[in-house]
Design brief:
Blueprint: E1 2-6, E2 8-9, E3 21-27, E4 33-40, E5 52-53, E6 62-69, E7 74-79, E8 84-90, E9 96-98, E10 104-110, E11 113-120, E12 129-138, E13 145-148
Parallel strand pairs: 5-8
Antiparallel strand pairs: 1-3, 2-13, 3-4, 4-11, 6-7, 6-12, 7-8, 8-9, 10-11, 12-13
């Protein structure tokens, strides 16, 4: 199991402990990816769509994981506190080749926190994984916050910079 904590803004500023997001990432016996999210619930407006796949989920309160293969292709997996998810296959930065891929995802909100459990099929994750990063977004308007496990360069948040993600070895995770 790989345990990750998102504890910085996208540009590297530390966040308070109560804003941090915790993610546990494991491989199942058949090679799928299992993840558990423990995050603060910020009470942002919820999507009006029923739980399940939701295009443009990044516009809401969300946790995102990016699995980047050696060839530069990657999976962007987004999960929200109200049971919505969005998985995108990309050939490179901003080059979507597969939209709304399947995932098994459930989320619950309790008090000021939400938790989510997901299983992502090994068939939608490119591999082998060479780089990885994860993010959390919450807030509305000028109060919108973009957090990152590993910070990124630039003048504004841009999560589609896989060349700056940390190199990782998730093969045995």
């Amino acid at each position: 199991m790989k345990s990750l904590t998102i504890e910085h803004t996208w540009d590297g500023q530390a966040v308070e402990v109560d804003e941090q997001v915790h993610i546990a990432l494991t491989r199942t016996d058949d090679g799928d990816w299992s993840l558990v999210i423990d995050a603060p619930y910020h009470g942002d407006p919820a999507p009006t769509d029923p739980p399940g796949r939701l295009w443009r989920l990044w516009q809401y309160e969300v946790v995102e994981l990016f699995f980047v293969a050696e060839d530069g292709s990657y999976l962007e997996a987004e999960f929200g506190p109200h049971g919505h998810h969005l998985l995108l296959g990309l050939a490179g930065p901003q080059k979507i080749v597969a939209r709304e891929l399947p995932a098994d995802f459930q989320a619950t909100i309790e008090g000021g926190r939400w938790s989510g459990r997901a299983c992502v099929s090994k068939d939608v994750v490119p591999g082998p994984i060479a780089r990885f990063n994860c993010f959390a977004i919450h807030g509305v308007g000028d109060d919108r916050r973009h957090l990152a496990w590993s910070s990124l360069p630039g003048d504004k948040p841009d999560f589609h910079q896989p060349e700056f993600f940390p190199e990782v070895s998730l093969a045995e995770e």
